Amino acid sequence: MARPHASSGRPARTRRWLKSRLTFHDERRFDEEGTILFSLGDSLRIRGRGRLAPCADPELRHGSVVWLIAGGDGHFDRSSGFITSNFLLSATGDLTENQLAVVFAPRRSAARAY
Fold this sequence. Notes:
about 110 residues, mainly beta, six-stranded antiparallel sheet, disordered N terminus
């Protein structure tokens, strides 16, 4: 997940919400399209393909998805990059997920006063 950096060099925590639509092709393959909403009006538009597979633990399914970042709003306007997600899904719907993102966000130009 895209994480802003705090001045200490450690990742800062930020609240985010994922609003997406999943389209399953079969029991294992799916497409996903949606938006990751951050605080203060910043968002990323994503689309990608994922896969679910059996897991060594019969109570879980293992999955992964790679999202293409297709722009965004606010700080993420004209952003690009990829987000990868590796997750476990339980029979009750509990999700344990790890994400890694590389996001290129163009620098904002400074406003000029005339």
